[in-house]
Amino acid sequence: MPPPPQPQGAMATGAAILTIPCSAGRSPKRSSQRRSSASLSVRASFDANTVTLLDYGAGNVRSVRNAIRHLGFGIRDVRSPEDILAADRLVFPGVGAFGSAMDFLNSTGMADALREYIRRDRPFLGICLGLQLLFDSSEENGPVSGLGVIPGVVRRFDSSKGLIVPHIGWNALEITKETQLLQGVDGHHVYFVHSYHALPSDANRDWISSICNYGDSFVASISMGNIQAVQFHPEKSGATGLSILKNFLSAKSSGAKVTPRRKASKLAKRVIACLDVRSNDNGDLVVTKGDQYDVRDHSSSKEVRNLGKPVDLASQYYIDGADEVSFLNITGFRDFPLGDLPMLEVLRCASEKVFVPLTVGGGIRDFTDANGRYYSSLEVASEYFRSGADKISIGSDVVYAAEAFLQSGVKTGKSSLEQISRVYGNQAVVVSIDPRRVYVNSPEDVPFKTVKVSSKGPSGEEYAWYQCTVSGGRDSRPIGAYELAKAVEELGAGEILLNCIDCDGQGCGFDIDLVKMVSDAVTIPVIASSGAGAVEHFSEVFEKTNASAALAAGIFHRKEVPDPTLSSLL
Ligand code: 1PR
């Protein structure tokens, strides 16, 4: 259900009651294409600092709220079709699947209200699915009819030729039409995360304000009069994204120029700053960092290493230019995460300051508390999303689910991975793999996929397989990283975070053999993790493997590179 409305502030002053016909139009200028004549009672308002938000409760729009508030605007939530028609400025951050979004809009009368609002050329900003829904139809869950405002269809990216889907990451816009919304943005990268895209065609050419290339060209933004929509996430696109949002929210915006973030004109490799978080022996939640997953000091005190406060470090890495920030609650496997209120508070505070994607992992599984109350993994994930996560990451629980799936060959639909990706979309679900290298003499020695290693093992072994672990590397399982990666792709993972216990904290570079094996095996993005000790290590992993992103921790905590804006150097 939509969240409760926000305080309405000055909205009451200057409000007026109107009654207007509700109709639909392909173009704001074509009032003849009406689909409904139902009348709606409308209260028009005149409040320059409040924006109306259409959040139909299907997913996390907290990031959009945080970005709007960060820019100094208040939010009024849509509760009824009349609220749409009364809006001065409407932001529609579509989330979830196309079919269920249209079901909701049609059954509540909001589809007609949206068409009418658009026909009247009122200020509108659609985000992500909020752009796709404007088109005639989508292949997602269907075909399903959309709002029919813009001619054209929405299709899935074609992964059959090896294209990695979802399209996740920072890609460049090619601006095709001058608009105030995209002023100063040409050539900049913005953050995309989607599996479906609107196709440009002769019929919708007039609408398109920018395109982007991923496999093929797709519609990155549209603009017609006051109607704007973007496929990317301005609320997660750092300073560039915030300036786009500001251009929409502030009628008086000067559209100030922003410094180019990067020069490349294709999907950029991402650099992710990771914060391993846990309580220290005094009960304070701290950022820590291990060597091969051992986070205790090697001195006699054996204390948990304390590298700083989670929110301070996350904010700093955002300011310094990290493409994404991840929190891993590394003792989540033994503590109940919903009992870990400081962690949720960390997430809330970080999401108000970090305007790039925020991932959180640790402890996502079904759980029964001391009072016998059962919590599903979906509830745990939902709480993480509500607290500000854009993506969640699951480790141990997925290993068990993948083992069961490989044994039975049956997808039950009940695993945490399947449930969460069904509700929030697979682009919101990362699977974290914690493997350890096991050398063997020959591929025949084990029933798991092996690689010929670049450096031989201690007894001259030429091959290795990568054994998955659970509970932060404490327990080894009878499944390899390759087998796990293939299984989780089938079960609905949107990305793989590929750690390597042997390399963690060593600063000797990523395990290229492992990253190559896994990133060649799947068509979802793989994040290489563990071992970065120099800028060259990032270049190496991107040159030699199909990794889409690289994650590091120690190198940033120890300030061994100026900041995480490494992608500009690569
Ligand atoms: O199993 O669903 O509860 O998730 C637990 C999560 O916590 C998993 O993602 C797991 O990887 C992580 N985790 C558990 N124990 C540790 C530990 O360090 N003792 N951290 C741990 C994993 C690996 C990376 C690290 C990179 C880069 N740490 O997060 O940041 O290796 O480090 P580097 O650049 O310094 O080499 P669940």
Describe the structure.
By secondary structure, the protein is α/β, with parallel strands linked by helices. The protein has 2 domains: 50-250, Class I glutamine amidotransferase (GATase) domain (Rossmann fold), CATH 3.40.50; 269-569, TIM Barrel (Alpha-Beta Barrel). The protein contains 15 helices and 31 strands. Strands 4-3-5-6-16-15-14-11 form an 8-stranded mixed beta sheet. The protein is globular, with a radius of gyration of 24 Å. Bound molecules: ligand 1PR. The site of ligand 1PR has 33 residues, from strand 17, strand 23, helix 10 and helix 15.
CATH superfamily label of the largest domain: Aldolase class I
Instruction: Give the strand line-up of the largest sheet.
Output: 4-3-5-6-16-15-14-11
By helix and strand content, what is the structural category? alpha/beta
Q: What name is given to the CATH topology of the largest domain?
A: TIM Barrel
How large a portion of the residues is in β-strands, by DSSP E? 25-35%
